[in-house]
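Hi R.,

Here's the chain you asked about this morning:
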Amino acid sequence: MSKACVFFADGLEECEALIVVDVLRRAGVEVTTASISGSRAVRSTHGVGLEADALAAELNEADFDLLVLPGGQPGTTHLGESPVVARMVTAAASQGKKVAAICAAPTVLAKLGLLNGREAVCYPSCRENLAGAVQSAQPVVVSGRFITGEALGSAIPFALELAAQLTGRANAEAVAKAICYNW
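And the predicted structure, written out as tokens:
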């Protein structure tokens, strides 16, 4: 069974995080939500309280096939300032693991130099912070082991693409059909 880690930071866009968690779990992926703060409790950008499964500092990227960074503000800022996120994401990338980010969060990958020369997408107002990447107008972009999504509006196809990357296209299509999403 594939395993994924979705990072939770105070100020995350809850739908971008939870749609990914939901779709991946429906696809049979073992998902761990991981708070980057010292507490499992986080509050989303819209004031929704969430409780992560674990603290990111206690996890090892080698245990996961995929790391996911949801967007939202100030959640993305917190992800970008986190030494734990930087360590885990760069190590996962160097190990050939899949790394995904949506909305503003692809800027964290760009800041780490992981998107240099790669096609990527992010929230339109964040494009100036996607330095080094080849910017795309597509809602979801797969560039090697990196998957990026534009915004909340692309969260379902983003999550389905992550499911396809981990469990195969046919399984992801079955999930899309089950949730009545024309993918």
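The mean pLDDT is 98.

Let me know if you need anything else.
M.
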